[in-house]
């Protein structure tokens, strides 16, 4: 199983970053530039990437106490996919966002990693604007 781990420093308060990330419908704003749209229905969301690709995700958990969300990609080219995004406070005006993605098959890493890196840059840029 492949694992991608990213630790993103963000120039915003942890509570503000969490407020933006905890709402599954807000993902297109947080990742603007990489994502262009999101549609939600119950625990499912469909995210549309800038190239028009649509991915279905299932929200597994929204944990306010630990400022952590867990989700999985449904169907598509994965045998298995699970990811978490967690906000960690650093100072009153800085936090880190830790994003971990585990998936099979390992070969999908060549497609997932550049998207994840672009997502990290977008998240850092868009959350710092709060």
From TrEMBL:
Cross-referenced Gene3D superfamilies, in alphabetical order? 3.30.530.20
Q: Name one Pfam family in it.
A: Polyketide_cyc2
User: What InterPro entries does this protein map onto?
Assistant: Polyketide_cyclase/dehydratase, START-like_dom_sf
Q: Which SUPFAM superfamilies match?
A: Bet v1-like (SSF55961)
Name this polypeptide is given: Polyketide cyclase/dehydrase/lipid transport protein
